[in-house]
Amino acid sequence: MIHAPRLRALEARHAELEQRIAAEGIRPRPDDEQLARLKREKLALKEEMERLRRGN
């Protein structure tokens, strides 16, 4: 697959964001703005990964 290295990098970043979101969510007073930013970035990565998997 021509996009395999890029896809692996996106998957790694996506997993990292997932961990950061979980860590922020369990804090006594989570930063709502930070959570929203992380979730938006995670969604954007997910959409890009899907485009690469479809071959677009």
In helices, the fraction of residues equals over 70%
Strand content: under 5%
Give a quick account of the main beta sheet: strands, pairing sense, barrel closure: none
What is the total number of structural domains?
A: 1
Low-pLDDT stretches are none
Topology, please?
Elements: H1 4-26, H2 32-54
Helix pairs in contact: 1-2
What would a concise description of this structure say?
The chain is mostly helical.
Structural account:
By secondary structure, this protein is mostly helical. The protein has one domain (4-54). 82% of the residues lie in helices and 0% in strands. The chain is built from two helices and no strands. It has helices at residues 4-26, 32-54. α1 (4-26) packs antiparallel against α2 (32-54). The radius of gyration is 13 Å and the shape is elongated.
Any descriptors?
56 residues; mainly alpha
